[in-house]
Design the sequence.
């Protein structure tokens, strides 16, 4: 007996489906292999053509990137002072030249007139001598008066200029150190708009950890102690001296708290940008997700997403330059490495270590919290962390996501300035 028609149709349908799945799997596999080959060959050196934004310092045989803004005096003020100085010198030179020409002219005219009306060589000599003396005395008197007036005006102008310059540059004596959150591929670009805003009033420096941005990967364990020592060495080698105002984002809050606890005299304040609270007791971090992301990176899937703008939240309307957006995207395609894996694996133990340390009472803290984070964690999440940080800790809620440092730059600048000014007012 032959099979019923419906059964034959089902078998044919299953065969077609299996065949389609087989072809689909083959195509995906081929694309993955193609992407892997392209990433390992054609795109392997794409980051080498990008010059570091700042300087590279060597720590334990590895290069670490340090990028700073606001470290030089105002260029416009320098240009104005230089222009005023040159103008003053030129004016002075012209005045002296005109005075000398006028004196010579008057001397010659007076001498000729007196010579014509008189006779005798003695009379002429006396007349010339007297005339020259009078002209010189007159010239010296006029020049002296003008010189005194110009000197007084110049001194007053310089005093006012210096007073204004010192007033404007005084806040720049504080050094704000920006520390990026976990997995940020290029912090020096990620913090770009915030750096430009802060640098108008302060020295601002980004330290890119090993394995991130322009810094090289390392086999050194990603412990709190190693992070802290690397930050200290990098800042020192780049020419910066404590005390610092630390401004960590996300996971870097862990390292910032550790730094302040171990070396409280080196930290004048901490401004936290939606940082990880060191009161959590979640389980150890699994690296399986990171390994999966590494796989997607290797086969080019991350590159595909970034090419159509899905993986990046940065745009020019937020204050980013085209170069920063392009470079951030390129570094995103190479962000997963052994150093990042180790950082993720030690995340939980680093929290526990800091949690058991008493935070110093002398270090004031402003914790800026994203409204979305607050909704997820709740008020208790925030209050427990503030309690751990002590009496000098305060908080401010920012309406936005975990990455509000990209979208709320003016609010951060305003809050930071008010916070640091309040500390200056409290200083006896």
Sequence:
């Amino acid at each position: 007996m032959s099979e019923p028609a419906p059964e034959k149709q089902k078998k044919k349908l299953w065969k077609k489906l299996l065949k389609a799945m087989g072809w689909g799997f083959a195509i995906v596999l081929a694309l993955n292999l193609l992407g892997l080959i392209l990433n390992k060959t054609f795109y392997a050196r794409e980051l080498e053509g990008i010059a570091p934004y700042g300087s590279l310092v060597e720590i334990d045989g590895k290069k670490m990137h340090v990028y700073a803004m606001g470290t030089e005096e105002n260029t416009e003020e320098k240009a104005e002072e230089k222009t005023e100085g040159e103008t003053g010198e030129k004016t002075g030179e012209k005045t002296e030249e005109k005075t000398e020409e006028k004196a010579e002219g008057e001397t010659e005219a007076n001498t000729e007139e007196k010579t014509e009306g008189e006779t005798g060589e003695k009379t002429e000599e006396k007349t010339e001598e007297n005339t020259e003396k009078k002209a010189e005395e007159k010239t010296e008197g006029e020049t002296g008066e003008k010189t005194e007036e110009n000197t007084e005006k110049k001194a007053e102008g310089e005093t006012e200029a210096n007073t204004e310059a010192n007033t404007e540059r005084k806040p720049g004596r504080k050094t704000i150190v920006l520390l990026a959150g976990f997995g940020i591929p290029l912090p020096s670009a990620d913090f770009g708009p915030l750096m430009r805003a802060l640098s108008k009033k302060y020295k601002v420096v980004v330290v890119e950890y090993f394995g991130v941005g322009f810094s090289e990967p390392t086999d050194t364990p990603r412990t709190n102690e190693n992070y802290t020592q690397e930050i200290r060495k990098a800042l020192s080698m780049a020419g910066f001296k404590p005390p610092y105002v630390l401004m960590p984002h996300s996971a870097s809050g862990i390292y910032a708290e550790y730094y302040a606890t171990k070396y409280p005299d080196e930290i004048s304040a901490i401004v936290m940008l939606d940082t990880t609270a060191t009161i959590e007791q979640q389980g150890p971090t699994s690296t399986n997700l990171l390994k999966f992301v590494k796989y997607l990176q290797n086969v080019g899937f991350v590159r595909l997403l970034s090419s159509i703008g899905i993986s990046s939240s940065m745009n020019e309307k937020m204050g980013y330059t085209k170069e920063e957006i392009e470079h951030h995207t390129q570094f995103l395609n190479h962000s997963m490495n052994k150093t990042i894996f180790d950082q993720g694996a030690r995340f939980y133990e680093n929290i526990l270590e800091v949690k058991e340390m008493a935070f110093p009472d002398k270090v004031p803290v402003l914790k800026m919290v994203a409204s979305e984070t607050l909704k997820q964690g709740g008020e208790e999440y925030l209050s427990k962390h503030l309690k751990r940080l002590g009496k000098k800790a305060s908080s401010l809620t920012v309406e936005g996501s975990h990455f509000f440092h990209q979208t709320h730059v003016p609010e951060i600048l305003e809050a930071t300035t008010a916070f640091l000014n309040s500390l200056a007012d409290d200083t006896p």
Notes: The two ends are 104 Å apart (CA to CA). The chain is about 60% helix and 10% strand. The first strand starts at residue 55 and ends at 59.
